[in-house]
Amino acid sequence: MIGAVKPTIVENTMKNDVILQVQDLSIVYQTPRGDVMATTDVSFDLRKGETMALIGESGSGKTTLSLSFIRMLPNSARVTKGKILYSRDGVTRDILEMSDNEIRRFRWSDCAMVFQGAQNAFNPVLRVRQQFADTAAAHGKTDKAWIKQRTLELFKLVRLDPERVYEAYPHEMSGGMRQRSLLALGVLLDPQIVILDEPTTALDILTQRAIIDVLKEMQQRLNFSIIFISHDLALAAEMASRVATVYAGEIVEEGSVEDIFYRHRHPYTLGLIRSVPRLSRQQDELMSIPGEPPNLITPPSGCKFHPRCMFASDKCKVDPPPLVEYEPGHRAACWHTDKVAAARIAFAAQD
Amino acid sequence: MATHTPTAPALEAAPVPSFHLLDYLRRFYANYTVRTIFKALVTIWAVITFTFFLIRLMPGNPVEVYVDFLMNQQNMTYDEAYSRAASQFRFDPDASPVTQYVEYMGHLLQGDLGESITSSGTRVIDQIARFLPWTIFSVGLGLLISFTLGATLGTIMAYKRNTFIDHTLSLISSILSAVPNYIWGLMILIIFGVQLRWFNVGELRGTYSPTMTPGFTLEFLGDVLKHAMLPVLVYVTGSIGGWMLNMRNSTIGTLGEDYVGVARARGLTSSRILLAYVGRNASLPMFTLLAINIGFIIGGSVIIEELFVYKGIGSFLYWSISQRDYTSMQGVFLIITISVVVSNLMADLLYSRLDPRVRVSGEK
Amino acid sequence: MTATTYEPTRQRSPHFFDSLFASLGIFGLALRRNRAGMVGFIGLMIYAVWVLIGPYLVPFDDQVRLDQIASPPGSRLVMITRVEDVSRYTSLDDLNGQTVGVLDRSGGETMVEPYEDSGALEVETERFSSGRGVPALLDQLAEGDVDAVVLFSDAAKRYLTPSSSGENDYPGLVVSNAELGRPYILGTDTQGRDILSHIVHGGTTLITTALVAGLMSTLIAVVLGAMAALVGGMVDTIVTAIANLVLTIPSFPLLIVLAALIQLNNPLMLALLIALLSWPVLMRAIRSQVLSLRERDYVEAAFALDLGLRHIILREILPNMMSFVAINFIFAVTRAMYDQVGLIFLGMVPINDYTWGVMLYFGRSRGTLFSPDSASMVLSPVIAIALFQVSMVLFARSLEEMFDPRLRTAK
Fold first, then answer.
1. In chain B, domain spans
2. Residue B130 C-alpha, separation from nearest chain C C-alpha, in angstroms
3. Are strands C124-126 and C99-102 parallel, antiparallel or unpaired?
4. B360 — contact with chain C (CB < 8 Å)?
5. For residue C234, is it left (φ>0), alpha (ψ between -120 and 50) or beta?
6. CB-based contact C31:C398 (threshold 8 Å)
7. Could you tell me if A236 and A243 are in contact, meaning their C-beta atoms sit under 8 angstroms apart?
């Protein structure tokens, strides 16, 4: 335990390679119609250099979760419970307790976020170069030569022609070029964590491919951790080392890529995976999850998934299932994991 | 809605070497500045042509009216009166309309707007040179103040959206923009000048006190500002509401843009985001409005200057109309219009300095 | 919720009246949520009543009474008697057969006339010829030459109230009846005429002309804008070029130049002139709106089905632009009001009607503007015009907020 002697430590329960530890995080949106429970008791660890994918339907709370890590939740949101512990160089801090200036400096230099639809991520009236310099300056790096060298280097890393992009305005670049520039901007300050929120949705399939390749290469070189948010399961499977399934603001299953895709134990994960079309499968065997995501102002009792679950029993309607570790690092919250496993095997046999 | 195609025209357009004159001209014209100036020149030409027809060819045009006046008042024959009018209006009575038009343009290019009818021997252009600077000064100062103040207040309203401050300022700006500026002028004059006697109406007439000797002294400058105070105040009151509301709506739109969120995530300081990201983008549509506003305020200056007895070009236009000094009237109207075109041109060029997208696509 | 989630850009092709009634219903609902809009709406209703019914309630006062020049709001006529007569003469009837002093600077008609209706009043009137008549009149009363004086309350107050030194110029005189005739709520103008009646009557022509000008301007803008966008090509180029030219020419100077050349006797002519100079802003907006609407699926479908330009404009495009056009119509009206009153104020338009603008013109040309006593004569029309414009704009702005989802207050 390196950090145990540091006085600034909040409460050191972190293993030495864990850089982000989310503990019982609950976030509520206050609306005129009532409080929306966007996330409830979410806990997970993110280790150095790993890629964690959050999968789930739209509105399941993935984006809320990722916004809370850089404290950019909308004004109507309140964190009602929990901690987000962040560790760098042996010092652990609760992100939620940081002062405004601390959080400003934390953003991007420790945790960068590449947003959904980054087509408009650049200020149209400033050159790309100026926006890189802006970012560096905001974090105390004003050495012009260093900024220029670093910027050009990163453009090369994301396979852009450094000389051409450097002086360009955002509107002079294509969507793919802008996305790559944003990735380069993301790692400008050498952050430990990069959050990617649907980073490729707006791009065509070839550009998507190129971006993913660039991302992987960058991660290898710079060794940052990635929180990857997507509803594209194939992409998640390719990028991630660990996956968490998010349903109605809760993590219902978490494990390694293999755990989630081949040994899933939660019916929602099963549903998600079975709803992806595969070349090897007949089109009509495609399964969709019945019903709609629950209303989070008055969520269902017991297991929130029970109204849509094919395995639901009376117990599910009353008792919320705890997140139980079935194999090392593989947790699931379901009373009927055995039934899910059996169904999974049966489906696999069909394919 | 400005949608931008994801193609990259500037980077992907391969330069093809060409020595054809037409190609060269086309590329020259594609330059935003060149094109904007060219358009302004065409507009000025159109305005001059329009004025020519208005003054010379329209039934009941000033030349005929003036000829009638000379015949009735001074017992001239038609021919005498006509040649007198021709010399003061600077046209050749025997020439065809086309030749007259060409000569008219020629005179204008030399800055010759003819001779004043009421005070013979005085060139109209000299009169204009005497009065125009005061209008440019007072209208310009008023616009500058109302634009900056309005944009600042509008930004505050957008940041404090749906709060008490926003609602109050919105209401105030609606009221300010609704009431005609000369009505504000009357209210200020009656309530603060006549009733409450906060200032002496008589003393503030004119562009500077008659006892002053013009020069670059602090005293003279202060006196000039004192006399411009009321017109400027009215220009500000009458136009600030529009700036506030437009800036508010524009800023609210900009605050929702992705790049503002990303800038926050990048850890930029809020002042940097406010100025370079929100403010700069939100103010862009305002420059388009600036063009329309300049024309409106210069137009309205006729009433405001007349109301406050401020000797600018507006009150000179009114004077020449009431004196039936048609040559002056023609010249002043032309100059007012040309100054609006030139101000618009300046607003457009300023806009292109602020928005790099315009320089390439030419779209606003 | 219905009001806040309302989307003016429906994807189906609505029937014109369907959408009109739907908008009206939603408009009523939404207005209740928008306080400024409500104030504007109520203001406009008041003006409508004022313009339509007001003239029947308040007779137009064109009777020149030079003794009541520029009296302040709330003035009345009062009767002044000697202290010992205070109980003898309390009403006009008591003056039968007596000598009554009445200030009459016109030299012609006398003050007594209005009271003849209330009873057969036979009085002998003394005539005075100048503004200095009041002290002279009061002197006569004090000396017993006349039995009572009928005066304007403001003048009476000026002479009968003890000054700061505690001295009263006429200790023997007293106001015996403070209420003769009806009060002048807004006071009187420089010719002693009731300002209130002018305010009530002076709006009709102005508002009508502004409405007609706004209507014409909107009509020109809609027709040209839709034509430019739908026909395109040369038509578009020419219309846009003309619009840009007209937009560049400062309209107010052109208006006064034209007013100097043409006699603008006819309000309709004036309205047309204003409309001809004010359509370009709306036309350009309509053009770009139609261009963007054209991209919508259902309009494209109508084009593909070759339903005809008239059908496409009336059934597909116009219903979707109703709110937009309505808002701009209101702004066009306020703009026309600006030009119109401005022209009248400068005296560039022949005076046919005694409008608010004419009151301002007289206020300026007769110097009343600078006289502290006659504030009401100028301030009344100023406020009438200002409130009209404010009502219009508040109403339009709330419409704008209701129909533009971007501006709508999201909660």
1. 124-357
2. 19
3. parallel
4. no
5. alpha
6. yes
7. yes
> Which is it for the CA torsion A288, A290, A292, A296, positive or negative?
negative
Q: Give the C-alpha separation, C358 to C206, whole Å.
A: 10
Give the separation between CA C272 and CA B93, rounded to whole angstroms: 34
Pairing mode, strands A18-31 and A225-229: unpaired
Distance of residue C140 Cα from the nearest chain B Cα, in angstroms: 34
Which residues of chain C fall below pLDDT 70? 1-33, 63-72, 92-93, 95-99, 101-134, 136, 152, 154-155, 158, 161-168, 178, 180-182, 190-191, 309, 316, 373, 404-411
Give me the domain span that covers residue A304.
Answer: 262-349
The pair of three-digit structure tokens given for residue C398, joined into one six-digit string = 């709330």
**Does C24-59+193-410 match C76-177 in CATH topology?**
no
- Sheet of strand A51-55: strand arrangement: A111-114, A193-197, A225-229, A51-55, A242-247, A250-256, A330-332, A324-327
From the list A218, A151, A148, A222, the residue with the least C-alpha distance to A181 is A151
A184, A206, A240 - which closes a domain: A240
Residues of chain A that touch chain B, judged by Cβ-Cβ distance less than 8 Å: 70, 72, 104-109, 112-113, 115, 117-127, 134-135, 138-139, 164, 168-169, 171-175, 177, 182, 185
- Round to whole Å and give the CA distance between A26 and A40: 4
Whether residue A185 and residue B261 make contact (CB cut-off 8 A), yes or no, is no
* Best of A72, A123, A142 to mutate (most B CBs within 10 Å, chain B): A123
Say if the Cβ atoms of A172 and B360 lie within 8 Å: yes
Residue C136 CB-density burial (10 A; 0-12 exposed, 13-18 middle, 19+ buried): middle
Among chain B residues, the shortest Cα distance to A67 is held by B265
Calculate the CA dihedral of residues C400, C405, C408, C411 and round it to 10 degrees. Answer: 170
B47 touches chain C (CB under 8 A): yes
Is A171 in the same domain as A309? no
A226 and A273, same domain (yes or no) = no
Amino acid at B28: F
Q: Which residues of B touch A70 (CB under 8 A)?
A: 265
Who among C245, C382, C406 is closest to B46 (CB)?
C245
Tell me, which fold does domain B124-357 have in CATH? MetI-like fold (1.10.3720)
Interchain CB distance below 8 Å, C292 and B1 = yes
Distance, in Å, from the CA atom of C137 to the CA atom of C128, rounded to the nearest integer, reads 8
C341 contacts in chain B (CB < 8 Å): 180, 182-183
Q: What is the CATH number of domain C76-177?
A: 3.40.190.10
What's the pLDDT at B10? 44
Query: Do both A68 and A185 map to the same domain?
Result: yes
Query: C24-59+193-410: CATH homologous superfamily?
Result: MetI-like (1.10.3720.10)
Chain B partners within 8 Å of C347 (Cβ): 322
Q: B190-223: per-residue pLDDT in tens? A: 888 888 888 887 777 878 877 777 777 888 888 8
Instruction: Give the other-Cβ count within 10 Å of B139's Cβ.
Output: 26
pLDDT in tens, A59-69: 888 888 989 99
